[in-house]
Amino acid sequence: MTLAWDSLSSFLAMGGHGLYVWGAFGMTAAVVAAECWTLMRAPRPGDTP
Amino acid sequence: MAAARPSPPWTPSRPDAPRSTWLRFASPLHFTRLVDGLAPPLMLAAAVLTVIGLATGLLIAPTDHQQGEAYRIIFVHVPAAWMSMIVYLAMAAWAAVGLVFHTRVAFALARALAPTGALMTFLALWTGALWGQPTWGTWWVWDARLTSELLLLFLYLGVMSLHAAIDDPQRADRAAAVLALVGVVNVPVIYFSVQWWNTLHQGASVSLTRSPSMAGTMLAGMLVMALAAWAYCAAAALMRARTLVRQGQAFETQLAVRRDPR
Predict the structure, then answer these.
(1) Labelling B162: which of A5, B5, B180, B211 has CA 20 to 30 A away?
(2) Are B74 and B222 in contact (CB under 8 A)?
(3) pLDDT tens sequence across A14-37
(4) What chain A residue is nearest to B75 in terms of C-alpha separation?
(5) Structural Rg of chain A based on CA atoms
(6) How many whole angstroms separate alpha carbon B133 and alpha carbon B145?
(7) What pLDDT does B20 receive?
(8) Which of B69, B126, B243 sits opposite A43 (nearest CB)?
(9) Region B194-201: what's the mean pLDDT?
(10) Is A47 a residue whose pLDDT tops 50?
(11) Tell me: the pLDDT tens digits for B5-15?
(12) Could you tell me if residue B54 is left (phi over 0), alpha (psi between -120 and 50 degrees) or otherwise beta?
């Protein structure tokens, strides 16, 4: 098993499609983080209403 | 309008209450305890699987000989698209259970699945657009796969809006459940659209009857990410349903106090 990349810059560039690939992964991370945040903020028993 | 409804058979005060184990979880108390136990391990599993899946997909899986590196969007696109359909099926199933058994927990699950499903649908469309531009030369086409997935997003938003638009919680639950059930016909349309119509969208990459058309590490990364997405959606929906069940109980308590202040 070998890494598909020889340098960090080639990994970030994604063969010239970095903006598309990281745009997809970044939006997914943002959406999941936002949902987790709203779930964590949900009122719990014992909270004052 | 409030027709007298016979008390459901699992009401603890009824002497002939069934001892069935799964009906026990229709009780809000058992359900919230079940979620307390299930949500943390599911979230942990989602996190661990995401790390493994991302490492496999982004670091180890080879470059695709046709699409170059843009294909790596598959590691979020396919899991999000699968979950957008699976979550809808789960939502419709709980809606049906709620309509048949009048269980508050089933309606809460149906309602809790909608925002997570809508987010997965949005992610499938977003990542699909970012994949379409470098591979097809366009962000969007009105082909059958993309259009039916967009319709799925509108169905989720419709179910959520309809629920929000009705004041009486029980009527809102039933109306949203009926809409969720009507919309379920769209799910097979999405899934089979690439076979039924001539679409720009490629056919299924994974099939139970054919050997996979992709490299082993690509397939492994995608399946691990799909499992991560499944665990995440289950945890998120269960946690949201727990909040809805608690809110429902608080609402009932308020009503009871107002009716019989002591």
Answers:
(1) B5
(2) yes
(3) 989 999 999 999 999 999 999 999
(4) A25
(5) 19
(6) 16
(7) 60
(8) B243
(9) 87
(10) yes
(11) 555 555 554 54
(12) alpha
* Count of beta carbons in the 10 Å neighbourhood of residue B99: 18
- Which residues of chain B have a CB within 8 Å of the CB of A17? 68-70, 134
How far is B176 from A28, CA to CA, in rounded Å?
27
Contact B36, B241 (CB under 8 A): no
Q: Residue B208 burial by CB count (10 A; 0-12/13-18/19+): exposed, middle or buried?
A: exposed
Domain residue ranges in chain A: 8-40
Interface contact B127-A27, CB threshold 8 A: yes
Residues of B in contact with A14 (CB under 8 A): 69-70, 72
Torsion of CA B156, B157, B159, B163, to 10 degrees: 140
- Residue-wise DSSP of B163-196: HHH-SSHHHHHHHHHHHHHHHTTHHHHHHHHHHH
* Domain extent listing, chain B: 29-200+238-259
For residues B39-46, average pLDDT: 97
C-alpha B210/C-alpha A36 separation (Å) is 37
Task: Give the whole-angstrom CA distance, residue A42 versus residue A37.
Answer: 9
Place of tokens 């903020």: A41
Q: How large is the average pLDDT for residues B155-167?
A: 97
User: How many angstroms from the chain centroid is the CA of residue A17?
Assistant: 17
The pLDDT of residue A46 is 64
A29/chain B closest Cα distance in angstroms? 10
